[in-house]
Amino acid sequence: MTRALFLLMSGLCCLLMFGNFQCEQHYCSLEFELRNWHSVWLNNSGIEPITSSDPIPRSALGIRLSAAFLNPDSLSVSENEACSWQAFHPISQLEIFATNGFDTIANGDNISSRFRLRALNAYSFQYLTLEQALGPVNFFYAPVTPDYEIDLVMIEPPSQSGAYQFSVKITYDSLSMPPSPDTFFTLPTVILQ
Question: Which residues span the domain enclosing 64?
Answer without folding.
Answer: 26-192
